[in-house]
Design brief:
By secondary structure, the protein is an alpha/beta fold. 48% of the residues lie in helices and 10% in strands. It has a 5-stranded parallel sheet with strand order 2-3-4-1-5, covered by helices on one side. It has a 3-stranded mixed sheet with strand order 12-13-14, covered by helices on one side.
């Protein structure tokens, strides 16, 4: 007799021998014991998980001379005939070969007759989804009301292709992939029965390659036993199957995470010289990085990952060294770039470039961090980034606001540096400066003159300091229009938030529509950041400060509402302006000096109107 492969030799003959599928096995055994077996059963799942095996065991259990029983005896005539494949009352049909309506008509004609030597006539249709629509329709009525002596059992790997009308007439059993621990124990027992010494590391590779399929794993074992004989080592398995061990994948992942590009390219060179399929190598690498991400964000990754204990320990140790956000970002870049490498005409070149791009992710700074640092620089702060190892020189790029920085600016413009006595600031002025900085808002500027163009000079702070005088000249800004001064407004915003000015420059046009400042864009991406609440509020402040009008900002993009702004976001700024204009101190000053309210500015101290000029030159008092 010819050699019987392991997949046939070790096929389970009882429910207790079935690997995995405990829930399905228990349900079937209880149904047999309680005499509640449905007249039509359909088993679904991936290849090699036991669909046809369970159907045959059910057929033996139903026709067993000791039953129907939860376990077939495998000793009676019916059981032995089914095991040998000679049972007349068991009809097993291949759905791919007998898929037409004519075959179904012959089947219906056959089941009208009573079984010859068994209790029931069993019809097993494998790959039932391959039947034609006409064949399914011809089977509907018989499947719904079959003869009492007939049981139907279907098996399919693609349950979604079976018509709903068929599914509704069957009791469904969905079989899962077999877990690695169950496969490991089962394959180890097979090796012991065959008298083969199987190394644990080699067994782990076989289990991984089986992919949850018992039949695939047994086929691999057959091939490896033929090559290795009675002793199987991990290198033999790698050579036979043409694989790259997880040790190489781990080495490559570690090199990518640490930025060692020389090691990365050397590993790729070894893999290509070995002749491994790069598509398979890419899938293994993605699987490893996915496991790293799971280990980095889950407290109990064993529930989600199916790896041996030694590899699971290695994954956990590697994931602890790097932040979860970095692992996710690197995995995302790998997914995008390695997919292209799989279809490239030069797969090695595409793979190397994909890995280089992935390693460079370590140097990418998030946009949110850049914007936050930019805001700190604009405020006059000097943030120091340890990663950059260089302080950010805010003084050179952005206007200064503190008193000390103003003094530095004066000295740079050629003024003589003052001594300790000359740098003295009166107590009252110092307190006022600190109060302005801590409050974060400016009160109204008051122009004390009867004519609109008349300017007022602020009197000296103290007679003891004739050199330290600041003059503020204010011009009315009520006549500014969006049409004429839009570019000036962008420049005004650029002095405060450069990235926001760049976004405004991408606008197609801006105009006033009632109480709304409408900014039109062609692409919603250009206004995506501006519409956020944390950005629309300062933008509204800038617009009201510059144009000195109370309005809301609205973004207009054709055929989309993705840039809509919540109207309530600008109300706070409007209320602040109204509160400042109606402040009792401001109204009293206007009445005393017979003046009028000029510009109303809200927000931090550094937001000065563009037309406000600060004369920092010292003026000497005339001799008396």
């Amino acid at each position: 007799m010819s050699y019987l492969v392991l997949a046939r030799k070790s096929r389970p003959r009882t429910f207790s021998e079935v690997v995995g599928q405990k829930a399905v096995v228990r349900t079937l055994q209880n149904a047999l014991e309680q005499n509640r077996v449905a007249h039509a059963l359909i088993f679904s799942g991936v290849r090699g998980v036991g669909k046809t095996t369970l159907a045959r065991i059910m057929a033996k259990a139903l026709n067993c001379e000791q039953g129907p029983a939860p376990e077939p005896c495998n000793q009676c005539t019916s059981c032995t005939e089914i095991n040998s494949g000679s049972s007349i009352d068991l009809v097993e049909i291949d759905g791919a070969s007998n898929r037409g309506i004519q075959e179904i008509r012959e089947l219906k004609e056959n089941i009208r007759f009573m079984p010859t030597g068994s209790r029931y006539k069993i019809i097993i249709i494998d790959e039932v989804h391959m039947l034609t629509t006409e064949a399914f329709n011809a089977l509907l009525k018989t499947l719904e009301e079959p003869p009492e002596h007939v049981y139907f059992m279907f098996a399919t790997t693609e349950l979604h292709k079976v018509p709903v009308t068929i599914l509704s007439r069957c009791q469904r059993y969905e079989l899962k992939r077999i877990g690695s621990r169950e496969l490991t124990g089962y394959f180890q027992s097979i090796a012991e029965k065959e008298g083969v010494d199987l190394e644990p590391a080699a067994l782990n590779i076989i289990v991984r390659e089986a992919g949850g399929s018992v039949r695939d794993g047994l086929s691999l074992l057959d091939q490896i036993f033929s090559y290795c004989g009675t002793t199987v080592r991990v290198n033999d398995v790698i050579d036979v199957l043409g694989l790259v061990s997880n040790q190489v994948i781990s080495e490559l992942a570690e090199a990518l995470l640490s930025g060692q590009m020389t090691t990365v390219l050397e590993v790729v060179d070894r893999v290509c010289d070995f002749g491994m399929d790069l598509k398979r190598f890419i899938n293994d690498l993605l699987s490893w990085f996915r496991a790293l991400v799971v280990c980095g964000i889950c407290s109990n990754p064993e529930k989600l990952l199916d790896f041996p204990d030694n590899e699971m320990s290695e994954l956990k140790q590697c994931a602890k060294k790097y932040p979860a956000q970095g692992l996710v970002l690197m995995f995302n870049v790998l997914m995008e770039n390695l997919e292209k490498a799989g279809y490239s005409s030069r797969p090695r070149y595409a793979l190397e470039m994909a890995l280089i791009k992935t390693a460079q992710v370590r140097e990418v700074v998030p946009v949110s961090r850049i914007l936050s640092r930019l805001d700190e620089v604009i405020k006059g702060e000097f943030p120091f980034d340890e990663e950059d190892a260089q302080p950010v020189a805010a003084e050179k790029a952005f206007p200064v606001s503190s008193v000390d920085e103003k003094k530095k600016l004066l000295n740079k413009k050629g003024h003589k540096e003052q001594g300790p006595e000359e740098n003295f600031i009166p107590e009252e002025a110092e307190k006022k400066e600190q109060a302005d900085l801590s409050a974060g808002t400016y009160a109204s500027d008051i122009s004390t003159g009867k004519s609109a163009g008349e300017e007022t000079t602020v009197p000296p702070v103290t007679q003891e300091e004739p050199d330290q005088i600041e003059e503020y000249s204010t011009k009315k800004t009520f006549n500014r229009t969006v049409r004429r001064h839009w570019n000036d407004f962008i420049e005004y915003v650029g002095d405060r938030k450069p990235w926001m000015a760049s976004a405004l420059q991408m606008a197609k046009v801006a105009h006033l529509d009632g109480e709304e400042l409408v900014i039109e864009y062609d692409n919603p991406t250009n206004c995506r950041l501006l519409k956020n609440r944390e950005n629309i509020t300062p933008l509204t402040e800038f617009a009201m400060d510059f144009f000195q009008k109370d309005f809301r900002i609205r973004f207009s993009v054709p055929d989309t509402d993705r840039c809509n702004v919540d109207p309530a976001n600008g109300n706070k700024v409007k209320q602040e302006r109204q509160t400042l204009a109606n402040d009792s101190l401001v109204l009293t000053a206007v009445e005393i000096f017979n003046g009028e309210v000029g510009d109303i500015r809200v927000g931090p101290r550094f937001r000065k109107p563009m037309n406000e000029t600060v004369n920092m030159d010292r003026k000497k008092q005339p001799d008396e």
